[in-house]
Design a protein that fits this description.
Layout lengths: L23 H11 L3 H13 L4 E6 L6 E6 L2 E7 L2 H6 L2 E6 L3 E5 L4 E4 L8 E4 L7 E2 L7 E4 L11 E7 L4 H7 L10
Parallel strand pairs: 3-10
Antiparallel strand pairs: 1-2, 2-5, 3-4, 4-9, 6-7, 8-9
Family: Belongs to the Gfa family.
Protein name: CENPV protein
GO molecular function, one term: carbon-sulfur lyase activity
Length: about 180
Amino acid sequence: AGESPAGAKAEPPGPGVIDLGAQSGRWAAFQERHRLSCEEAARLLLDAYEYRGLVKHTGGCHCGAVRFEVWASADLHVFNCNCSICTKKQNRHFIVPASRFKLLKGADNLTTYTFNTHRAQHTFCKTCGVQSFYTPRSNPDGYGIAPHCLDDGTVQTIITEDINGKEWEKAVREHKTIRDMSKP
C-alpha cells in the first residue's frame, strides 16, 4: 500500500509544499546559516528578485509607535512642494508604489487629515504628530515617504526637485513623470 503503480506519475506537491529537488540541502543550509524560518528565507529570496536594484529602507515616527519598510533606490528623488500644507509641514517626500510599502506597526496609532479635494491623505502619528508617510494627491495609488523619517544607513544620495504646488494642476500636468511614480 502507498506505492504508485509502474508508469504512474508522482503527484505534484500540495499547496504550500515545494519540492526543491537537488537544492533542498542548499536551502536548509541557507536557512540554518542565516537563522531564518522557511517563510523568512522565501521572503528574502522573493524580495531580492522582485526588488532588484532597490534597497529595503525602514523608518517611522519620532516616538516609534509607527514603523514601516519601503523598497526604493538608495539614491532618492525627493520632491520639495510649496503648496500650503507642504510648506507648513516642510513635507519633502519621495514616491513609491503601494506594493513597495509595508506598514509594520502602528495602524491604530495613525490619524488622517484631508482638505480641499480630500484626495491626499495626510497620515500622522497620534502620539508624536510626525508624518513619516502619506498618500499624495498626485499618486493616490502610492505613498509619499519622508526621507528624514528613514533609519540611518540605507540612503546614499538625495536629489531634491522643487515642485510648484501653489499651482498644483499645472505643475502635475507639465511634469513628465510624477504621476507614474507609483507604478510598479
